[in-house]
Amino acid sequence: MTHSNRSCHWEFTSLIILVTDHHLVILLIWHETTLNAKMNPTASWRPMYNHDLSAVMLVADEIHPGLPEGASVFAERVELFPEGCFVLESRQEICGYIISHPIRRHCPPALDTLLVEIPPTADHYYIHDLAILPSFQGRGLAAEGIKKVLDVARNCRTTCLISVYGTLAFWKRFGFEPGMDDADMSAKLRGYGNDAMYLECQNTTEQAPV
């Protein structure tokens, strides 16, 4: 007897006699469906709240072991600009997050620093961090989260971010391109690793593929 996890298809060979046992066949089909649900659990984005922060920190520690930020940084972002903070949740467990907020153009915050406030003159948007656990990557969930923050950013002239881990090609899918790289920016980028790049995109009504 063989089966495929993707299609939930059952092929009975030497055990074909089991087909005559109606109750057993139903049990097998139910088991297969349950197995697929466990292997590919659904996940969705929702607003981030203070009570999520401990779980968010666990995700951050796993995804960014070399770029640590304190819990106070995450807590401050949620307090200052909650509409730009989301978590990816599956079965009441946090499996990813995205944090974003307005800034002045070309003034992204240094790693692991507090903002104190959102400047009144902030007319550009910044994606501070996007992190998703490996078991939930490759499903289009990142694109869904990015769409959410780009919707929030629509009233700003541009959206920017600091790309790490060589993810330029990924961000180009959403219209981001390398931006200004003067001495001050280069010094700030060094805190994010050797491959860090400052990226920008113009905010439009059609931002990215999903």
From TrEMBL:
Molecular function GO labels: acyltransferase activity, transferring groups other than amino-acyl groups
Gene3D superfamilies per record: 3.40.630.30
Domain N-acetyltransferase: 43-204
Domain of life: Eukaryota
InterPro entries for the chain: Acyl_CoA_acyltransferase, GNAT_dom
Matches recorded under Pfam families: Acetyltransf_1
This protein's name: Podospora anserina S mat+ genomic DNA chromosome 2, supercontig 1
